[in-house]
């Protein structure tokens, strides 16, 4: 016998209904894709953009920019790099959303092909009777 009674069953059923809704599944997919996208953008920033920015800034490696306060080492270069990473991710997501919205608008603007509906047997029979009477 279930010591929790029917409340636990109801809670489980309610959770299933919630978890299996389309929006939750879409959100889960978005989180996974967003994580992968974040890794790609971080790689772009760390391996391409930041070295070029360092060369443009006179050979500065942003990750190594630090200053000391007593015995503490403040790594503000890593913070600058994180801000640049965030900006690149934000711009990338903004562009991706703009592209998706424009594709959705194009899809909504397409006229639906008119479907040819086959008449029912009754309609066919009535047409035959009409045609026979018109002769």
UniProtKB/TrEMBL annotation:
Domain of life: Bacteria
Stretches that traverse the bilayer: 20-41, 48-67, 73-97
UniProt entry keywords in alphabetical sequence: Cell membrane, Ion channel, Ion transport, Membrane, Transmembrane, Transmembrane helix, Transport
Protein location: Cell membrane
InterPro entries: Mechanosensitive_channel_CS (IPR019823), MS_channel (IPR001185), MSC/AndL (IPR037673), MscL_channel (IPR036019)
Membrane topology summary: Multi-pass membrane protein
Main location: membrane
Gene Ontology terms, MF aspect: mechanosensitive monoatomic ion channel activity
GO cellular component, one term: plasma membrane
Self-association state and partner proteins as the record states: Homopentamer.
Role description: Channel that opens in response to stretch forces in the membrane lipid bilayer. May participate in the regulation of osmotic pressure changes within the cell.
HAMAP family: MscL
Similarity-based family: Belongs to the MscL family.
Name assigned to this protein: Large-conductance mechanosensitive channel
Gene source species: Candidatus Kaiserbacteria bacterium CG10_big_fil_rev_8_21_14_0_10_44_10
